[in-house]
């Protein structure tokens, strides 16, 4: 039987360290953010719809969507964010389902920032949340995205609080030190694939 584990966590919590470890153990990872980026590439239906909705001002000279420009438009405006989500979510979920169906791994891990959103349509057998202290998360995101502490804080404030995610999850991995999660991931992997 194919087992589906939904993995989430706030920005900078270190989900990628956890999903990479699951992958090394033999799980397949379906990454919602990666899919979201791919469906916005030229030639994809989502690309056409996004450009139609937000205009050609979001394109660079080669006709590619400038993600930072699109993000600055939608993250300050709830209605525009909803419009973007309405366009992209159907494509994202369809591709996720396709990757789940084609996987031959015993364990499929879904890396999904909005796993606990009310409209997430894919049924997971279990869920896991990756957490880290706020200061650790802020430091990681500043280093990764080359942004300010205020920008990170603003993004964190728009997400579900870690404490709320923990209450909803079957498993929790605290990731303040990126060496620590490996043993916990192994434990969960072998529990679910036994």
Write the layout of secondary structure elements.
Elements: E1 3-9, H1 15-25, E2 28-31, H2 32-38, H3 45-54, H4 67-74, H5 78-102, E3 107-111, E4 126-131, H6 134-145, H7 149-157, H8 162-168, E5 171-174, H9 181-193
Parallel strand pairs: 1-3, 1-4, 2-3, 4-5
Helix pairs in contact: 1-9, 3-5
Report on the architecture of this protein.
The protein has 194 residues and is an alpha/beta fold. Helix content is 53%, strand content 13%. It has helices spanning 15-25, 32-38, 45-54, 67-74, 78-102, 134-145, 149-157, 162-168, 181-193, and strands at 3-9, 28-31, 107-111, 126-131, 171-174. Strands 2-3-1-4-5 form a five-stranded parallel β-sheet, sandwiched between helices. The radius of gyration is 17 Å and the shape is globular. The mean pLDDT is 92.
pLDDT averaged residue by residue: 92
Based on secondary structure, the structural category is: alpha/beta
Query: Judging from the principal axes of the Cα atoms, what is the shape?
Result: globular
Residue runs with pLDDT of under 50 for 5 or more positions = none
Q: How large, in whole angstroms, is the Cα Rg?
A: 17 Å
Strand content: 5-15%
Number of strands: 5
Amino- and carboxy-terminal Cα gap: 11 Å
Order of helices and strands: EHEHHHHEEHHHEH
Q: What is the percent of helical residues?
A: 40-55%
> Which strand order does the major sheet show?
2-3-1-4-5
Largest sheet: 5 strands, parallel
Can you count the helices?
A: 9
């Amino acid at each position: 039987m194919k087992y589906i584990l939904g993995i989430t966590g706030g920005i900078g919590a270190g989900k990628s360290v956890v999903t990479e470890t699951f992958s090394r153990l033999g799980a397949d990872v379906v990454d919602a953010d990666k899919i979201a980026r791919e469906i916005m590439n030229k030639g994809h239906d989502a690309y056409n719809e996004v450009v139609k909705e937000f205009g050609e001002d979001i394109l660079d000279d080669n006709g590619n969507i400038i993600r930072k420009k699109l993000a600055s438009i939608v993250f300050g405006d709830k209605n525009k964010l909803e419009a973007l989500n309405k366009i992209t979510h159907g494509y994202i979920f369809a591709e996720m389902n396709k990757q789940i169906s084609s996987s031959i791994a015993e364990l499929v891990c879904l890396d999904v920032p909005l796993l606990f959103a009310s409209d997430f349509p894919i049924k997971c057998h279990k869920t896991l949340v990756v957490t880290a202290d706020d200061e650790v998360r802020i430091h990681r995101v500043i280093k990764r995205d080359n942004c300010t502490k205020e920008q990170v804080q603003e993004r964190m404030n728009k997400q579900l609080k870690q404490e709320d995610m923990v209450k909803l999850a079957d498993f929790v991995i605290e990731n303040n030190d990126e060496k620590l999660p490996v043993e916990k991931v192994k434990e969960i992997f072998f529990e679910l694939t036994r």
